[in-house]
Task: structure prediction
Amino acid sequence: MPAVIVVTSEKGGVGKSTLAVHLTGAVAERGLRVALVDEDGRVGSSLGWARRGPGLPFEVLEPEQVKPKVVRELDALIIDTEGRPKRRELRELSERADTILIPTGVSALELESTLSLADFLNSEGGARRKLKVVLTRVPPNSGAGERAREDLREAGLTVCNTLVRQYASYLRAAELGVLCKSVPDERSAQAWADVLNLSREVL
Ligand SMILES: Nc1ncnc2c1ncn2[C@@H]1O[C@H](COP(=O)(O)OP(=O)(O)OP(=O)(O)O)[C@@H](O)[C@H]1O
Ligand SMILES: [Mg+2]
Result:
C-alpha cells in the first residue's frame, strides 16, 4: 500500500494546496508513483489547478476515484484537505495518514494555530509520531523561518529542516495551472529546489 501523506491545517489559506501540488510534483520527478487527492471541492483547490493548465505530471483524483485498484499501484498518495476541517474530520484524517504534514506561515497567529492543532492531534494518541510541521511562505533572507522553526521545535514539535520560501513563482504557477519550475521567473529554480528538498524529508 502507498504511504499516505495528509496536508492539513486548521487555519485557511496557509498554503496547503500549493504545497500539496508541488510536493506531489517533486515526488513524481524523483521517479516514484504518486497521485494527489483533492478532498476540498471548492475553488482554489488542487483539482482546479490541474484543470487550468496543460496538465500536471501526475494524476489529481477526486475522493470517489480513490479505489483499491488505483491505489495499489502507487508508492505514495498525497491528500490536500479543505480549509477549515472540523476536529472530527481531523481525527478521521489522522487515522488514515502515515504522515500528517501541517504547513504554517511564520506569523504568531499561524504558529499559535499550528501548536493548537498539534496539541489536539497529540491528545488523540498515535498521531504524535506522524506529525510534521513545515514552514511555508517564509520571507527569504529574513531569519523569520529559522526563528519559527526553532520555536516550534522547542515546543516539542517535529519540524522539517526545509523552509519553503515565499516566491511569486508559486502564485503564478497556480494561475497557469503548472508547477513553479515551469514559470518563467528568475526565482523559479529556487522555489522548485525548496519543494524537492522538502520531498526528501517527507518521503
Ligand atoms: N511558498 C509560497 N510563496 C508565495 N505564495 C504562496 C506560497 N504558498 C502559497 N502561496 C499563496 O498563498 C495563497 C494561499 O495558498 P493556498 O491556496 O495553497 O492555501 P490553502 O491553505 O490551500 O488555502 P485553503 O485553506 O483556502 O484551501 C495563494 O495565493 C498561494 O499562491
Ligand atoms: Mg487549499
